[in-house]
Amino acid sequence: MSFCIAIDGPAAAGKGTISKAVAAHFGFAHLDTGLLYRATGAKTFEGLTPIEAAQSLTAEDLKRDDLRSGDAGQAASRVAAVPEVRAALVDFQQAFARREGGAVLDGRDIGTVICPDAEVKLYVTASDEVRAKRRHKELVEKGEEITLEEVLADLRERDERDAARATAPLKPAEDATVIDTSDMSIDEAVAQVLALIGDRR
Ligand code: C5P
């Protein structure tokens, strides 16, 4: 049995945490598709073109230590605007989405492009300020020296680029349920999502 849960939304809206909790709850596999773009972006630091980087992506590349850095996030959103980069990553994501036993994929275009027939589509969002605070806390805990203002500017720049690109832009699928987590704790957001999915299974 395959069952795909698509979770899209802007950076630091809570997609990752919600996806992990949902996958654990249902015993589904989870793919953070942002990692594919981060790893592709990181490979361009070593001189590969974005297309070469995407076409030669391996499981090892997804284990690099620097994928969560602000630089890797910016590089990811730049390579993610290249249509050939996106095309190189489609088959892997679609096979993952239709694996036996169920899958949760989170990203920007899962409900719109990768899995348009997903059984559940969510668009998780939050205000810019709340998202910046969450990401800032995460980065500081990892030892990055960065101000809240820098994080906010970085998120806005990335979201604008992601929403403005011609191929697979960031936007809710027409049939997605939008969840705004600005005024929710992560536990509340997870509970709301589990209740919603429970109704559809
Ligand atoms: O989700 P995360 O912040 O790790 O994603 C990094 C970047 O990868 C995003 O800013 C976006 O440009 C790109 N991305 C994408 N499509 C996805 C997932 C991520 O374009 N499905």
TrEMBL record:
Residues 5-42, 59-197 form the Cytidylate kinase domain. It catalyses: CMP + ATP = CDP + ADP; dCMP + ATP = dCDP + ADP. ATP binds at G9, P10, A11, A12, A13, G14, K15, G16, T17. It is an enzyme of class 2 (transferase). InterPro entries: Cytidylate_kin, Cytidylate_kinase_dom, P-loop_NTPase. GO terms for cellular component: cytoplasm. It comes from the Bacteria. Its EC number is 2.7.4.25. GO terms for biological process: pyrimidine nucleotide metabolic process. It holds the Pfam family Cytidylate_kin. It is found in: Cytoplasm. Keywords: ATP-binding, Cytoplasm, Kinase, Nucleotide-binding, Transferase. GO terms for molecular function: ATP binding; CMP kinase activity; dCMP kinase activity. Its main location: cytoplasm. The keyword Transmembrane does not apply. Belongs to the cytidylate kinase family. Type 1 subfamily. This is Cytidylate kinase. The lineage of its organism: Bacteria, Pseudomonadati, Pseudomonadota, Alphaproteobacteria, Rhodobacterales.
